[in-house]
From TrEMBL:
One of the Pfam families matching this protein, by short name: E1_DerP2_DerF2
The keyword Cell division is annotated on this UniProt entry: no
SUPFAM superfamilies, alphabetized: E set domains
Keyword NADP assigned: no
Species of origin: Desmophyllum pertusum
Stored InterPro entries: Ig_E-set (IPR014756), ML_dom (IPR003172)
Top-rank lineage group of the source organism: Eukaryota
Residue ranges occupied by any MD-2-related lipid-recognition domain in the UniProt entry: 33-151
Identification of the protein by name: MD-2-related lipid-recognition domain-containing protein
Taxonomic placement: Eukaryota, Metazoa, Cnidaria, Anthozoa, Hexacorallia
Signal peptide residue numbers: 1-22
Keywords: Signal
Length: 154
């Protein structure tokens, strides 16, 4: 199994799915990034830079703007990544220790969250198209951010 799952704690999931030594120049090419139907949030924006391709070894930023409809005192990240209908990664983690700023959000206030990381190396010849759904929910299990992402790793 080439895919490794250790970094999926954060919304960097799509920047960090692969952990292998150097290979030919590859990277992560986004095909689609959108918010899930629920929750409805007029302010919801996602910006990925560089777009739509983050080359291996290069830094990338993900900025998410959202307005939680509920107070958030604790946040849990839940993700599921599929390729060809098969689950390649799935998990759930409390994010407060790593991203405390996501764990004290007042309802109705717009928040901008940026994550920066360096794209991991992709093994030579590796290619995989993935679809991932990432949800953040609060201590009452109300989802306040949900992203639906399709990308190709190559
Ligand atoms: C990521 O964000 C930092 C800080 O705003 C900025 O200096 C950098 O140029 C950005 N990198 C990319 C690839 O957009």
């Amino acid at each position: 199994m080439i895919v490794a799952y250790p970094q999926l704690i954060s919304l960097c999931l799509l920047i960090s799915v692969i952990s292998v030594d150097a290979g030919r120049p590859g990277g992560l090419e986004f095909k689609k990034v959108k918010f899930c139907e629920f929750p409805h949030d007029e302010t919801a924006r996602v910006k990925i830079s560089p777009w739509p391709f983050i080359p291996s070894g290069k830094p990338g930023n993900i900025t998410i703007t959202f307005t939680p409809a509920v107070d958030v005192f604790a946040a849990t990240l839940q993700y599921e990544v599929k390729s060809d209908g098969h689950i390649v990664a799935r998990g759930r983690d409390n994010v407060c220790h790593k991203f405390p700023e996501l764990c004290s959000l007042p309802a109705g206030e717009t928040y901008v969250w940026t994550y920066s990381d360096v794209m991991r190396a992709i093994p030579p010849g590796f290619k995989m198209t993935i679809r991932g759904v990432v949800e953040l929910y609060n201590e009452e299990r109300v989802v306040f951010v949900c992203l639906d992402v399709v990308a190709t790793i190559h």
